[in-house]
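Researcher: Here's a chain I'd like modeled. Treat it as a single chain, no partners, no ligands.
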Amino acid sequence: MQWKRYQFQKHRRRLIQTYNYQWAEDTLIPELTQQLKENHVQLRELTTEEILDKVQMLIPRRDTLNELMFSFISKAKTNGLTMVDVTARLRQGNWSRKQRVFASLMIRVWQQYESILRENDMIDFNDMINYALQVAKSSSGKLNKYSHILIDEYQDITDPQLELIQSLLSASAGSTLFCVGDDRQNIFSFAGSNIYNILQFENRFPYAEQTVLSTNYRCPKNIVEASNFIANLNKCKVEKNVVPASKIQQPIHLFQKPGNDETLYDDWQHEKAKQLVTDLIRQKKSNEEVMVLSRFNRPLRRLELEFPQNETLGLRFLSIHRAKGTEADYVLLLSCISGKNGFPSEILDKRVLDIVQNTREDGSGKLEEERRLFYVALTRCKNQLYLFTSSTQRSQFIWETQQYLSPLTEPKHTVVPA
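Model: Modeled as a single isolated chain. Structure tokens:
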């Protein structure tokens, strides 16, 4: 405080000071207002629209570099690699300049990350698994085995988690392993999950018995059919056909921006989605919920600002990754468009992660995971589903499911009771 006061004095600037006790006593705003007026500052109350515009400007765009850095460290640890291992791979491999530069940068970031963990006496989730696995491997058969092990969300399992499970089982003790999972919902490869652990379950655990739960009790009949179709386009999958318990057919509404002006898509979608959500909140039953989904958070944050009391309204805004395991009566899926900020995502160049992976991924694997993510989004819906796209930027997934969609250029907002 003294240094700051000196700087204002040194540079001959007028200083207006506020204090924490003013906030605690709820006098901060009136006293600050008084000081500003005494210093001839003109005050004008902003309109709601101006406030929303200013808040929108403060929302950061999606940080691609941050995602890549997280995935680099997570995948390295998941694959049992140390910084020494990555450094050795850098020297030995035939890497592109981009891969070398990124890996060199990430080794320094990783060192700093580990330093922060040590200083705060912390470990991350990957460390928890790896340390537990080290204990299991070093126990020389003295580790207590378990007679029954139950695992949920098995499709998200990583290779170290698989190895840890195997070390906790005992053939002599007759251990029983029971796993529940859905290969169609494997959407966390960026955190190290390996879809082949569920696709090749019988190879991982010989003599396994499989029970397929093939009935969908949540979605209307045509949404089940559409999600079945999209899932079966993937090559990496467990062969199955999910059937609907419901015979109800609800149209899947496609809200499509007309025209060739791509630059205004975000504004068009925002206004249409805001009106639709407003209508749904007004017309839905008290026990019904509305969920707004998007591949990325930016359109969600902008729209959420329009509905500050959304939880009391039965309204949620979620990325598709966060929405897994949830459901709602009315689901809006935003930004089903092509391009870097579209769905499927084209923004991440995962080739820079090859150096920390045991096997190199190709573009088809990434597309199939994006398709599984689209499947997850569709199957959150219990009643009415609304997709948003552009006539000039249609998502590949819109083209793939168009036979199940009911296009509307200018949507008429109606709610049909379930």
